[in-house]
Amino acid sequence: MKKIWKVIIGGIQSKILNLMLFTFLAVAGAYLAVIMYQSSQLNDLVTTTNDSQVASISDISEETMQDLIEGNLLRITNLNAQSIDNTFRTLQSHVEFMNEYASRLYSDPDAFKPVYISEPDPANQGFTTAQIIYDEGVDRDSASVRRTIGLIGNMSNLMETLYNSFYNLNSCFIGTADGVMMIVDSESSNKFNEDGSVKTIPYRERNWYKNAAEQGGVQISEIETDYFSGKIGIVCSIPVWVDDKVIAVVGADFFLENIKEALNSNVMNGGFSFLVNQQEDIILSTESAGYFPLEPGDEPSEMSETKEFMNFIHEALKEETGVRTVRIGNETFYMCGKPMENVSWAAVTCMNKEITDLPLKMMYYEYKKINQEAEQRFSSSIRQSRLTLIVLLLIIFLIGLANTAVLSERIVKPLSKMTKEIGSMASHDLRFRMKDPYRTGDEIQVLAETFEDLSVKLNSYIDEVKTVTAENVRISSDFRLARDIQASVLPDPTTAFEGRKDFEIYATMDPAREVGGDFYDFFLIDENHLAMVIADVSGKGVPAALFMMIAKALIKNRLLDGDSPGEALANVNRQLTESNTRDMFVTVWCAVLDLKTGKGCAANGGHEHPALKRKGGVYELVKYRHSPALGMLSELKYAEHEFSLEPGDSVFVYTDGVPEAADPSMNQFGTDRMIDALNINENAGPQETIYNVTNSVGVFSEGADQFDDITMLCIRYNGKNQ
Fold first, then answer.
1. Fewest beta carbons within 10 Å, which of 1, 164, 711, 722?
2. CB burial class (10 A; 0-12, 13-18, 19+) of residue 243?
3. How far apart are the first and last CA of the chain?
4. Is 62 helix (H, G, I), strand (E, B) or coil?
């Protein structure tokens, strides 16, 4: 080895210099050659690729837009048909309910006291009111007319309730064969002539009355003008028969503008919806221009002459069409139609194809323009990059050569030694020790000192991690065991009462932490008495879980010993307050149901209001005054609430984790959303009902943490003979 200008020829410094020089020249030469070749190839590739991309994107975008349009049209059409069908179904059920009550009145009129209803009063404008209107030529002071008014007046409360429960209703009414009509609505002011006298209405000549009296059964009218308001609407009517004679006709109506609001709420951008009746006439449309009429009864100018469109309408009245393209005049439309069950109409959703194609054309034009500009910038950038790359490589070479010569002596040796020592450290001894070769007085020495300090801390940290990990494993195992124990004490609703047909019951408990403070319980006191309990302990975690286990056992024992629900809560409250040093309390709803008769008794200690669903009805909250929670004050008495279930009735109870579930904005789920979830499917059993509520809470609170335990219990009483 020779030393020239402080560089040892043949030593590590010269080897580094030679290696760096050779590597740089080889890499730079190869890189430049590849870059030059690929630049020319890339120019050609970009041009051809852009053309193929434009064609491919255009095809994919068109397919995607087509799928999107078809999906939206199908969804909106089904939504419109279902919404309007549900409106007619609800209207028909209201009228059938009125018909049933009127039939009872007329079948035994002496069993009802007369309730006299007044004629319209302008002061009642805006308030739901029952009013008497007469047909033309009726003797209002005759005894028979007064008897009729007194008899049908018994229906006023029912009709007002039905009117208020169905927001789409214009009015509900009963018209008798002797010329007396009772109408319930909130529009008292339109019942008067210009001179202030009350209008008469020849309702016995109206189609809704004549068709019902002549044809019998439920009648859904064609579109007709309301006598009082002049608005266009639909009437549902049913005759009241006594001794094979039509005594009266009950009915209800609503305006088409209410349906139009529903259609408008489902209109997609660039699209519109309309309805056609059995005569293949468009009766209502959300479109205000073009071929499609805006108001009910308007006739399109060219559409009825278009065979393709009329064939589509004819098919839509029979079955769901799927998405079609239909040409009308010089325009092409996407159309989707679906018939409705309760009324002989069809709902149709449309979108002008020219509107849907416009974004694709604009996108194609803009994309092509961007590609052309990008090609120009790319070509210019490639030329500039070639020159810049050559200059940079030369600068990097000179800097690298200088740095290698100056720093190799000071860096290579201590770093190599340090690397070797670090690599040789055993897994059981990760200690790095400072040595003289590392004391260079610069960053290498700082690095060595840092490694030494870090190795000391690393060994200490590893010891701590081992200790903490072992403790966390033990705690996690304890929590899993506690959760399993807590779950095991709750009855399994899928196997608890196999073989029983007189009732169905289901319950769930979802704790917010590893263990929860909520619990539910249900068990047979004897063959004919079922006990049900749901409770919520204050607080969370292990203390609440322990308090929950104690309260559950005490309540069950008291009920099995023969205590009534009120007595059981009073006795358990006394036991809990004796040693309640943590001031914990528990809210409880418990009930005992006689499975033979359907009669039950419930007690509520500060718990949530239960929800009750009668057969064929909907869930509603049952609100009554509660007693205090258990564990707060001793020697309390707990009020009992008696109830009675008929076959098909259901009861739903829950803890506050359901209505107080929050979304990411801290808005609470609330009892109104809970009731809506309970009524998603009126025929759902207990398990599906709880699933619907659980799913609704999950969708509402998605993205937010669960702050409280969520527990639910639902029972449907089927009756002893089931």
1. 1
2. exposed
3. 107
4. helix
